[in-house]
Structures are given as structure tokens and as C-alpha cells.
Design goal:
This protein has helices at about 5-25, 30-65, 70-85. With about 90 residues, the protein is mainly alpha-helical. It has one domain (about 5-85). The radius of gyration is 23 Å and the shape is elongated. The protein starts with a helix and ends with a helix.
């Protein structure tokens, strides 16, 4: 699990507490800061999720390339050829 997911969870929790305290005390600035921390925490959590997804995808591709190196090379060659044709090279 990416560290951003943990940090995001902590930041969301901290923001929730801060926002609740601000709401209870009538401090709108503290409440706003808490809500901002919640949003930042959600963004960090999403970043961590994306990093985990990319890492899992990379490992999956790596496994497939090791299992079928010739097919992988031919696919890469075909993709390179198509990109070259599209780009007009």
C-alpha cells in the first residue's frame, strides 16, 4: 500500500476533528481549515490508490513479458509501427 493512502487517511481524520471543533466552537476559520484538510486527505488517498494501481499493472505486464517474451516483443514492434504510421514517420 502506498504511503499516501495512510497519510491521506490521517489527514482526513484530522480534518474531520478540526472541522467538528470549529463547528462546535463557532470558529468558522477552524471549520474551513478542517474541511480543507479533509479534501487534501481525500486527494492524497486517491493518489495512493492510483500509485497502487500503476504498481499492480506494472507487475502484471512484467510477469506477462517474462512468460511470453517473443509475443511481447512483436506486440511492442506492432505498436511502434502504428505510432510511426500515425505520426507520419
Amino acid at each position: 500500500m502506498a504511503i499516501e493512502k495512510l497519510e491521506g487517511g490521517f489527514k482526513k481524520a484530522e480534518g474531520t476533528v478540526e472541522s467538528s471543533v470549529g463547528n462546535a466552537t463557532g470558529d468558522s476559520t477552524l471549520e474551513f481549515k478542517g474541511k480543507a484538510k479533509q479534501v487534501m486527505g481525500s486527494a492524497e488517498d486517491a493518489l495512493g490508490t492510483a500509485k497502487d494501481y500503476v504498481q499492480d499493472s506494472y507487475e502484471s505486464v512484467q510477469t506477462q513479458v517474462k512468460a511470453k517474451p517473443v509475443q511481447s516483443a512483436l506486440i511492442a514492434l506492432g505498436i511502434g509501427y502504428l505510432i510511426g504510421r500515425i505520426a507520419g514517420l
